[in-house]
Design brief:
The complex is a heterodimer.
Chain A: E1 3-8, H1 11-22, E2 29-35, E3 50-56, H2 60-74, E4 79-87, E5 92-99, H3 102-106, H4 111-124, E6 133-138, H5 141-163, E7 167-168, H6 174-185, E8 190-195, E9 202-207
Parallel strand pairs in A: 5-6
Antiparallel strand pairs in A: 1-3, 2-3, 4-5, 7-9, 8-9
Chain B: H1 2-12, E1 20-26, E2 29-35, H2 41-45, H3 50-66, E3 69-75
Parallel strand pairs in B: 2-3
Antiparallel strand pairs in B: 1-2
Classes of the chains: A alpha+beta, B alpha+beta.
């Protein structure tokens, strides 16, 4: 049920009741006042109840899932989408993509997945003041990539220490560079910094 | 391919009713011409062409499976 008509002594009372009936909160509804209601004389004569129509708005999570499924279908890929988690406090929404054509949607070094994530964020946050960050994953790809970046960081750090020269990594998007920086943050004897401009910005590991 | 491009464009611009996508062939490749309202040009191109780049990446991904060469042109 996503549409109800409720009555109450006042408009506010009707609204509260309707929100409860729809099992949602006040940010997710739109309403029309059908009848304003009158208190009447001493609450007795000419009293009229307020009547309000409430429509439940699509939540951003629902909207995101719908749009993502639509895009994947139109790309003719054999994939499905699911909601993993919605962290309302942090305004993060995690969505997972799974199925046959996983490789295509991830792309080389996650290029396609990142592009899709970027477009999804633009679409869902268009004209909204409350920014929701959508994070797309493909069957644990993000975690696998994180582990391999951590390994890469440690390996390259060793190389820098051994040769005494600075090691330049290949260009990476911001979230991947962050993984490299934080992996080597606690390692003594080396420091990391980035050089260049996105999308060619890369991390450099240097012996102190 | 055409549909994906239209869906993406319609969802990121302010005037979705003014989005149009035309498809034409040129030799081996398919060219998709995207047109949007003048004030929406910035929305589909983005800062430093970031949005346009993401759109092209996705269209290319869609073309991988179809084993076709596709190019997106943004027309003004």
């Amino acid at each position: 049920m996503d549409r109800v008509i409720v009555t109450g002594n006042t408009v506010q009372e009707a609204l509260d009741k309707g929100i409860k009936d729809l099992n949602t909160d006040k940010d997710n509804i739109e309403y029309n006042v059908i009848e304003k209601g009158k208190g009447g004389f001493l609450g007795l004569f000419g009293k009229k109840e307020a009547k309000v129509e409430l429509i439940k708005k699509e939540t951003k999570a629902e909207k995101s899932l719908k749009l993502l499924s639509k895009l994947i279908e139109e790309m003719d890929l054999d994939l499905q989408v699911e909601l993993i988690e919605e962290k309302t406090t942090k305004n993060n929404l995690f969505l997972n993509i799974f199925g046959e054509d996983l490789g295509i949607i991830i792309g080389y070094r996650g290029k396609n997945l990142d592009a899709l994530q970027y477009i999804m964020n633009l679409a869902i946050n268009k004209g909204e003041s409350n920014y929701l960050k959508i994070i797309l994953d493909a069957q644990g790809y993000r975690n696998r990539r994180r582990s391999s970046l951590e390994r890469l960081a440690l390996r390259m750090c060793k190389k820098a220490k051994k040769t005494g020269r600075k090691v330049m990594l290949e260009p990476m998007p911001p979230h991947e560079r962050r993984i490299i920086h934080s992996t080597l943050q606690g390692v003594s004897g080396v420091k990391t910094y980035s050089e260049g401009r996105d999308p060619y910005r890369k991390v450099i590991i240097k012996v102190k | 391919m055409k549909e994906v491009l239209r869906t993406i464009a319609e969802n990121i611009v302010d005037n979705p009713q003014e989005v149009s996508v035309k498809e034409r062939e040129e030799g081996q490749s398919i060219i998709l011409e995207l047109r949007v309202a003048d004030e929406d040009m910035g929305k589909v191109i983005g800062k430093g062409g970031r949005v346009a780049k993401a759109i092209r990446t996705l269209i290319e991904a869609a073309a991988t499976k179809a084993k076709k060469q596709v190019r997106v042109e943004i027309k003004d």
